[in-house]
Amino acid sequence: MKRASRMMLGVIFLIITSRALADKLSDFKDAVSKTGCESIPYSDLQSDCKSQQSNVHDYCDGGKGPVTCGSESITRQLKDNIEKEKKNVEALKEKKRDLEDQKSKASDDNEKNRLTKEIEQAEKDIYEAGKRVDQSVADLDARKKLVDDAIYTINKCMDYRRAVMNIFATALDKVRGETDEDIKPLARQLRDMYEESKRGHEIAIKDKENALDTCNKSKP
Amino acid sequence: MEPQGTKVLAELETAFPKRRIRSERAFAEWGATYPDAEPYMQQLEGKTWDQLDPAYAVRRSDALGFLSTKHLVEVLPVYLRSLVEDGISSPAAGVLTQILTRPAPGKDTGLGTARFKALVDALTGSQRTAIASALHLFSDMDPGGSLGRAARYAFDSEWKRFLTGPDAPPETRDGRAKKT
């Protein structure tokens, strides 16, 4: 009786093992004909890959915030603009002081009237130039916010891109370790596929590293 | 758009023929693990380069590092056009300047030496010139910035030698003069 039970258990074990192996072989056959995350024959890694790739889309496509700061020269131009507008205000104030000085020394009424009008115009110009200073400061503040937001988004984007690349690195290690004779040829194909496309991931990550560098240099 | 931009766009139009793209095997050589391979291939299938959705293409500029050489040549004008039209706002500028930079000796950066050579070999003379023009124009748009410098570096690394017309930058014309 005991012997029969042991035999039965052995048969069940064999059936389960061969079924699992058949499923695994099927997963590998599927994987070699697929691209992207579906080229991973391990369900847990494939699921992680899809999940991380969804995050890549969210953070790298611009949906969660800016992913580029454009050129560092934009910040430089905005700062220069503030300086230029401030100098302009100072020049106008100086002009107004000169006009007031001239007016105080003028004895002719016509001359006084003319200078009064010019002083009024200078005051208007100072007011307008002041508004331009305020606008320039607001533009720089907006730039600072964009740069800060972009730094956050790009960092997240890089994290998720690296996560996807690392999942393929893990999958590469696993396929290298496959020992079953039926699976080995498929594992070799997958190994080659993963190795050949690694550079694409590196280029995408390098792009974001460069974008981050530009943003860091763009901080006001 | 500046006249020089219009001229470069015309060069791209002329240099890159508008053939229907067959997307099959677009990622078979170098891009099996590109997570967006399937939707990207669907976008390409049966379209000519000027029929592709430029917004989608530039958003997926990461595809450039995974595409086969043949398909890379077929979609390149879409990305070059974005450089010219969108300038430093082009989302494709970073990846494009990377893959168009010849790897420095001893450094297997960007596409890598073998793939970069395959790309240059797969291009016609007028296509190489159009690439040179687009990179040169883009570098002039952002002379002090990282993107402009990257474009300039790519231009100097390979494409400068293909820009030899009367509009070529002085250093290129000098180079040609020295050769003759």
Number of domain units of chain B = 1
The portion of residues forming beta strands of chain A comes to under 5%
Q: Which value, in Å, is the CA radius of gyration of chain B? A: 16 Å
Global shape of chain A: rod-shaped
What kind of sheet is the major sheet of chain A?
A: none
Contiguous helical run count of chain B:
9
- The structural class of chain B is mainly alpha
Which parts of chain B are unreliable, with pLDDT below 50 for 5 consecutive residues or more? Answer: 174-180
H and E order of chain B: HHHHHHHHH
* Overall number of structural domains of chain A: 1
Order of helices and strands of chain A: HHHHHH
Helix content of chain B: 55-70%
Terminal CA distance of chain B: 35 Å
Total number of beta strands of chain A: 0
What does this entry show, briefly?
The complex is a heterodimer of chains A (220) and B (180). Chain A is mainly alpha-helical and 220 residues long. Chain A has helices at 2-32, 43-60, 72-105, 109-176, 184-196, 198-217.
Brief descriptors of the model:
heterodimer; A: about 220 residues; mainly alpha; Helix Hairpins; rod-shaped; B: about 180 residues; about 55% helix; about 0% strand; globular; disordered C terminus
Write the layout of secondary structure elements.
The complex is a heterodimer of chains A (220) and B (180).
Chain A: H1 2-32, H2 43-60, H3 72-105, H4 109-176, H5 184-196, H6 198-217
Chain B: H1 3-15, H2 37-44, H3 54-59, H4 69-86, H5 93-99, H6 113-122, H7 125-141, H8 146-157, H9 170-179
